[in-house]
Amino acid sequence: MTSTNTTCDSRVDLLSLTKEELKALLLSVGEPAYRAQQLFTQLHRGLLPEQMTNIGKITRQKLAAIAYWHLPGIERKLVSEIDGTVKYLFSLADGNCVESVVMTYEHGHTICISSQVGCRMGCRFCASTIGGRVRDLSAGELLGQIIAAQADFGARIDNVVMMGIGEPLDNFDNVIKFLRLVNEEGGLNIGYRHISLSTCGIVDKIDALSALDLPITLSISLHAPDDQTRSAIMPVNNKWGVDALLGACRRYYERTQRRISFEYTLISGKNDTAEQAEKLARVLNSRLRGKERAGAMPIHVNLIPVNEVSETGFVRSGESAVRAFAKVLESRGIRATVRRKLGPDINASCGQLRRTAMREGGENLGTPSPAPT
Ligand code: SAH
Q1: Residue of 75, 99, 141, 363 marked catalytic
Q2: Catalytic residue among 112, 123, 249, 350
Q3: CA 369, CA 362: separation in Å to the nearest integer?
Q4: 155 and 30 in one domain?
Q5: What CATH number corresponds to the domain at position 26?
Q6: Are residues 81 and 45 part of one domain?
Q7: Model confidence over 229-285: pLDDT tens digits?
Q8: 350 a catalytic residue
Q9: What is the pLDDT of residues 107-146, one digit of tens each?
Q10: Quick check: is 99 catalytic?
Q11: Quick one: 126 and 21 in the same domain?
């Protein structure tokens, strides 16, 4: 599979290459193919080509003429004094910026990475989509966020969630290539089971992902139990409604047997009433667990009181509304947890740091591409 070159550099991006592709590249500059394994490992450890002593200077020069190597640079870094969460604003080779967040849980360190510069999905509550999508990230840029964060953070990153800026399934080929690279021997060695991908619900791509049968965890940003409520806050719902989306979820589970989690951000007065919780339980149970369906599919709902973004005007639900919502779901056999807010002092939810930096005029916004129709 080839990945799209997403920067203005016409040379090939070394970090985006599989071992097989590196082999072909090395052969083309007169180096033996067996060096591909060493080069792959060194690149994924974050070594600069000049630090690779086993590759001769002339070969490096030949490589530099046809390939480039760039790790995201740390443009800004915020560390939470409350829980140690670290938020990075990374600059890419062309000056665009994205965010990544490293969080520490009992089961290790988790990084939340971005998949695009900006986003064209238009979810009304989300800061990442306000300026539209500028471009997709390459597989190497997806990987580069982990390599650069790991080098700075000084500890192994165990888990990856694709929940940062952008819609991963709107950058399908590069994301799939990234998943294979991150899992490849001699690289970062993060297993598929330690990776979650979150989507706003691009149904044809969920089906394409099912067909690949990768044992990653899928998260669905559902946020509403019916089309009227969901279309008002998520334009993607105009193309694929709740019923179509849950159909794709059922097929995903039947194919992969992997549990799916649902994200539900609670917005005061929009989607947070007890009736809406009842409706949510009803639709999840009937579409995913109906008698003829694939057994008792485990369903988990993450409730997230909305992070208030000044441009959106949405207000987070109060504690009692959140508790009441969770209680209704639990009483209908659906596990619900209220997401602990990490890094509350550093605005750790994605998209906000990039927007602040852009408002201050320091970073490159680029020209957004049109939203899907
Ligand atoms: N595009 C993907 C992944 C990025 S967003 C998706 O939609 O899933 C990651 C998660 O954060 C999604 O569930 C998204 O709906 C949620 N989110 C975005 N803005 C938010 C906000 N202001 N408050 C709470 N959750 C938000």
Answers
A1: 99
A2: 350
A3: 21
A4: no
A5: 1.10.150.530
A6: no
A7: 999 999 999 999 999 999 999 999 999 999 899 999 999 999 999 999 999 999 999
A8: yes
A9: 899 999 999 999 999 999 999 999 999 999 999 999 999 9
A10: yes
A11: no
Element at 110 (helix H, strand E)? strand 108-112
The answer on 298 and 191 residing in a single domain is: yes
Å from CA of 239 to ligand 1 middle? 19
Q: What residues make up the domain containing 36?
A: 12-68
Burial of 298 (0-12, 13-18, 19+ CB in 10 A): middle
**Confidence band (pLDDT; 50, 70, 90) for 365?**
very low
Residues in the chain: 373
105: exposed, middle or buried (Cβ count in 10 Å: 0-12, 13-18, 19+) = exposed
By C-alpha distance, which of 363, 369, 350 is closest to 91?
Answer: 363
- Residue 206 maps to which CATH number? 3.20.20.70
Verify that 267 and 336 share a domain, yes or no.
yes
- The total of structural domains in the chain comes to 2
Give residue 213's region: left, alpha or beta (phi > 0; psi -120 to 50). Answer: left
Q: Report which of 109, 166, 116, 112 is spatially closest to residue 139, judged by C-alpha positions.
A: 116
Position 144 in a domain: yes
If asked whether residues 169 and 227 sit together in one domain, one would say: yes
pLDDT at 292: 52
Q: Which amino acid is at 309?
A: V
Sort strands 116-118 and 133-136 into parallel, antiparallel or unpaired.
antiparallel
Ligand 1 centre to CA of 263 (Å) is 8
Per-residue pLDDT tens over the stretch 176-221: 999 999 999 899 999 999 999 999 999 999 999 999 999 999 999 9
Distance between CA atoms of residues 150 and 26, nearest Å: 27
Q: What is the DSSP letter of 216?
A: P
How do residues 277-335 score in pLDDT, each as one tens digit?
999 999 999 999 876 554 578 899 999 999 988 888 899 999 999 999 999 999 999 99
Kindly list the protein residues whose Cβ atom lies closer than 6 A to any atom of ligand 1. Answer: 123, 125-126, 163, 167, 198-200, 221, 263, 265, 304, 306-307, 309, 349
Residue 268 to residue 322: CA distance in whole angstroms: 10
Type of residue at 66 = I
pTM for the structure as a whole: 0.92
